[in-house]
Amino acid sequence: MKLIKRSYLNELIEVIGTPDIKVITGVRRSGKSKLLEAFFEYVVSNYQDANVIHIDFNKIEFEELQEYHILNDYITSRYQEGKRNFIIIDEIQMCPKFEKAINSLHSNGKYDIYITGSNAFLLSSDLATLFTGRTIEIKVFPFSYQEFMEYYELENPISSFDRYVTEGGLAGSYLYPTEKGKYDYISGVYETIIQRDLIKRKKIRNKVLLRKISSFLMDNISNITSLSNITSVLNNNLMQTNDKTVGSYVDSLCQAFLFYKVARYDIKGKKYLASSEKYYLSDQSFKYAMLGKKDMNYGRVYENIVAIELLRRGYEVYVGMLYQKEIDFVAIKRDEKIYIQVSDNISDEKTFAREVDSLLKIKDAYPKLLIARTGHPEYTYEGIKVIDIGEWLSKK
After folding, report:
1. What's the pLDDT tens digit per position in 258-288?
2. Backbone Cα Rg of the chain
3. What element of type H or E holds 165?
4. What is the reported pTM?
């Protein structure tokens, strides 16, 4: 498979030597293992005094280390005095109680530790309790549009965008020459997440209900969604459940990084709203692979792509509310704030007026952006930057 250098490698390089446990998270097949391989090669090539203890539990040669005492003994026996001692472990969850070994190794301050594994075991919310030392989380997403263009050596971000919409960012699918082959691969990744990360490891009993909820969220990306609404739809379709169960299953789907939940934000009152969130797929290709292209709402798919790209760029992302009107995104990063509307086609005057009207009602001085499938160069309308979605995604 063709490899490209991803920005996550720089994130790992920047934290070399810090005393934290580095934990790489992200949806299955987003490139976590390849990232560890690239990091291993970087360390070996750039640090002459490096002693790298590299364990890949995907390989049978490390099967005997799947007991945490043996894992600990294996690593400590390979420690070299006077060297930079790196520990790099992939699929660490295959060693039960691995956290005991990692915490013990980390406590003596002799190792620089990097790990990745199944999302069911390495959840962002659990890292602080799982490990006694401080952790740095490197959040890995499927290929961005920039990476997609680099992989296929594409040059025109506007004309190439439609291809990215349907193929998505799960790079393993790029090896298959036909659409059927690509979607078979993507649906296989989805099934692995459902079966291994959720049903098996989370011990979810009602498998049919989990799939129904997942399909509902896929079909309603970019729509305001409440647990009670999901429950009502399921009950009306003779799938008896309750808000508590639905909430638990939705949380599990988010914990597997299949979906991301985005809360609402009151722009005028400058406060977060607790109920009715939006859910976005980690990669839009899951929707095509599992539900097909019939009755596809491209505006909602574009909004999904922008949401994930904002998360990929390190923003906190919220759905904005102002005078009962919705702003698709309020993106915040430290002192930076951007208001964003996303649309499919704004060539119609009424559609354009509706999209900019919400942004024009915001009276503060933060940048306002309308992202759409314009097919034209960027321009400005009454202080609002209007840009083609392919062009925006391709910018560094």
Report:
1. 999 999 888 876 777 767 799 999 999 999 9
2. 22
3. helix 161-167
4. 0.93
Closest CA to 52 of 67, 37, 65, 64: 37
Shared-domain flag, residues 252 and 106: no
Which amino acid, one-letter code, is at 39? F
Q: Which of 141, 152, 146 shows the shortest CA–CA distance to 174?
A: 152
Tell me, yes or no, whether 318 and 347 share the same domain: yes
Structural domain including 306 reads: 145-394
Start-to-end Cα distance in the chain: 25
The CA distance from 279 to 215, in Å, is 12
Residues 86 and 126 both lie in one domain: yes
Per-residue DSSP letters for 253-313? HHHTTSEEEEEEEETTTTEEEEEEEEEEESSTHHHHHHH-STT--HHHHHHHHHHHHHHHT
Percentage of residues in the chain having pLDDT higher than 70: 97
Residue with tokens 């799982």: 130
pLDDT tens for each residue of 338-363: 999 999 989 999 999 999 999 999 98
Is 147 strand, coil or helix? helix
Closest-CA residue to 110 (of 75, 73, 65): 75
How would you write 316-363 as a 3-class SS string?
EEEEEEECCEEEEEEEEECCEEEEEEEECCCCCHHHHHHHHHHHHCCC
Question: Are residue 133 and residue 257 in the same domain, yes or no?
Answer: no
**pLDDT at 125 > cutoff 90:** no
92 and 239, same domain (yes or no): no
SS3 385: strand
Maximum distance among all Cα pairs of the chain, rounded to whole angstroms: 71
